[in-house]
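Q: Got a minute? One more chain.
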Amino acid sequence: MPVIRHLLSALAVGALLAATAAAAAPPRRVVSINLCTDQLALALADPGQIAALSYLSRLASLSFLAGNATAFRIVRGTAEEVLKIAPDLVLAGAYSSASTRMVLAAHGVPTATFTPVTTVAEARAEIARAAALLGHPERGARLVSEIDRALTEAALPPGPPVLALQMQRRGFASGRETLIADLMRRLGIVNAADALGVVSVERVPLEVALKARPDLLILQDEDRPPADQGAALLSHPALAAVVPPQRRAFLPYREITCAGPALPAAIRRLSGEVRRIRAAIAADR
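A: Always. Here it is, folded:
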């Protein structure tokens, strides 16, 4: 227990230092050690402010702004390598190494920790917070306005409700306390996972998913031969019989994992796919 108390105390010190830094001059050497804070730094900071990003920032399958990240140094996220850069602000995620954050706090490095968001409202708040920390609140306001504009433009016209199920490898489905579920609600899409009792991201047996009989299956990868057993479930003939290929939508991982600059693109893509699926359902009937 003393170790846990020491850890929590150190993390609190890091957060206090970050809050103090936000009230001072904009940081000049920002290091991000998290995929989602990478996106926020790339979207909201001046290029000259960014000292390093996480190694995930360059992976196009995960990072929405991977192309922009190639100009910057990358780090694995250890305290030793971060300290060598002498940052005046570190952006971290709630699942970034707690020991790294504790060491940074012990060395007086301001560290701001961002938690995964589950709603658009939370996304707006985290964007505004990051923009303020980086000294560019107006950029945060512009990104929030872009998200709101995308939601307005993506509003679906009146029509029959679409029952959708978002599924990932190994049968994991997204329940009501996830960002994709909030986007569904805002666009008027019924989340089939609600009736299944799924709250966060939970594994749903194939037979249970089949009984839900969704109109639309939202996947993260385009149709391709499964590379392993985890992906094979999504190609199961029984699932194809209930939700044929023409009623599957694809929302790339890089657009939905981090609720930052990718969010407008995810909103527009999801709305477009639902419009397409509605037409397919109407044709089937």
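A: The CA atoms of residues 52 and 73 lie 5 Å apart.
Q: Perfect, thanks.
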